[in-house]
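Continued from yesterday's entry.
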Amino acid sequence: MSTKYKATTTEDAYFITITTVGWVDIFNRLNQKQIIIQVLNYCQVQKGLEIYGYCIMHSHIHLLCKATNGFILSAVMRDFKKHTSKKII
C-alpha cells in the first residue's frame, strides 16, 4: 500500500479508486456487486464510513467517502479490501 496518498485524517472526504489486480473484469455478476454493497454497508454501520457516492465498474470501484467517529479511512479501506478479497473469487 502506498504511503504517499494514505488518508490519515477524519475531517476530509476522499475520492478513492480500488482496482483489481491487472484490471481484470470480476465485477460482472450481480452477486459480486451485492457482496461489495454488503461490505460497504457493514463499514458504514460498524467502522464509521460515511459514503457520499460510489460506482462499481467491471474492474474497479470509485468511492467518495470519509471516516467518522474516530476511525481512520486508510484502516477502514484496508479492512474492506481484506474482507472482500476473500469473498469474491
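--- second protein ---
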Amino acid sequence: MSQSQSTTTTSAALQSAQTHILFGLIAPSVMTGMAHHMFGVALPSIRQDFAISADVAAWVVMAYTLPFITLMPLYGRLGDGLGKRRLLLIGTTIFLLGTGVVMSAASLPMLILGRAIQGAGTAGFVPLSIAIISERFPANARGRVMGAWNSAVPLTGLSVPYVAGLLVDRWGWWAIFPPLLVAGLVAVGMIWRNIPARSGAFHYGFLRRFDWTGVFLLSAGLMTLLFYTSSRPITGVPALRDMRLLAACAGFLVALVLWELRRPQPYVNLRLFAHRTFTLTSLVAGLRMFLMSGISFLMPLYLTDIHNASASTVGAVLAVQAGTLFLVSRAGGQIADRWGSRLPTAVSMLGLVGVMVALALLPASVPLWAIFVIVAAHGLIIGLSLAPLHRSAMQEVDEAETGMAAGLYSMLRFAGQILGTALAGVLLQQGLDRLLPPLAAYQSVFWLHVVIALVATVAGLGIRERQTA
C-alpha cells in the first residue's frame, strides 16, 4: 500500500511539473500570437500612413519574419549547449527591446528596425518549445501536449484582433504595441517561474567552437533568396528578375552545403534529411505556412480594398479564423497520437485546396458573412495539421539532437511563411501595376495558392508513421 501511495504521489508530482512547464511555454506563445494578430489588423493603417505599395507593405511584415526564420536553427543549436530556458528568457527580453523601438518609430526605417528586433527575439520560441516538449514529455503524449501548446496562438486570436481593430480605429496603428510590452513582461515571469533550469553551467568554450561560418552562410542564402523574390524595394529591379541576387543566393547555399559536410558538429545537420519523414514533414509544414501567411497578409488588404472594411471589421474576421483554428489545434494532436500524423495532415492539405478555390472564385458583390464562413473554414482546416506535423518531424530524431532538429524544421516551416508573404505582395502589386481590377489582382494570387495546396496534399500523403512503444 505504501509503495502504491508513493508511486501515486510521484506520478502526481511529475504531472504537476509538466503542467507548469507547459504554462511556461504557452506564455511566450501568447505574446507572439498577440504580436501576429495585432499587426495583421494594423497593416492597412500602416500602409496608408506611410503611403507604401503592396510589395513594400510586405517588407514591413518580412522585417519581422526574416530574422525570425534565419535565427531559428541558431537558437535550437545553442539550446543544446547553453540551455533552452536561458535562451527563452534572452529572446523575450530582445522582443521587449524591439517593441520599445517600434513604439517610438517616427519613420518607416525605424519601424522596420523595431520589427526586425522583435523577430530576432521570438525566433527561438518555436524550436526551443518543441525541443523542451520532446525532452520532458513521453512520446505517447507529445501530440496532445503540442496541440495544447499550439492552441495558445489561435487562442489569442479569439479576441485580440477585434480589440486591436478598436485600438487602431481610435488611436492609430501604434496603439497595438503597449499591450505587447505587458504581455512580454508576463512571459518573462512565467518562463522564470515555471520552467526549471537543467544542470549545467554556461560553457563559453561551446561558443568558441560553434559553427559561426555556417550561421553566416545560411543567413546570407536566405536573405538573398528573399531579396530576389521581392527585389524592387531593395535594388530597384522588378521582382524575380535580379539575377545577381539569384546567383548570390545559389553561391551561399552551395558554400553552406560544402562547408557543413566537412564539419564534425555542423550548424545545419544535413544528415537529418536522410530521414524521409523529417524531410517530407518539413516540406509540408513549409507549404502550409506559405498558404497561411499568404492569406494572413492578403485578407486585411482584401477586406479594405474590396469591401471598404474598417479595422474593427478586419479584426473580427481574423478573430473568427483564429477561433476556429483554436478549436481544432488540440484535436489534431489527439488524432495524431491515436492514428498517426499522415491522416490529419493529408485531410488538412486537401481541405485547403477547396478553401483557396473558394477565395479565387468570390465575386466583389459577395456579402461579408460569406467571407466570415470561408475564413472560419480556413482556420478549422489549417489547424488540424499543426500538432501532427510537429509530432511527425521529431519522431525519428535522437534526443541529443532535438534542439538542432527542431530549429531546422522550424526554419524550413517559417521559410514558407516569409516566401508566402513576399510572393503575395509581389504578385498583388504586379497585378495592380498591369492595371488589373483590384479583385482580379487578388484572385490571381489566390489561384497560385490553389496550386501550392495541391502540392502540399501530395506531399502529405507520403508521410509515414513510425510505431512507438
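The mean pLDDT is 86. The radius of gyration is 22 Å. Will compare against the first tomorrow.
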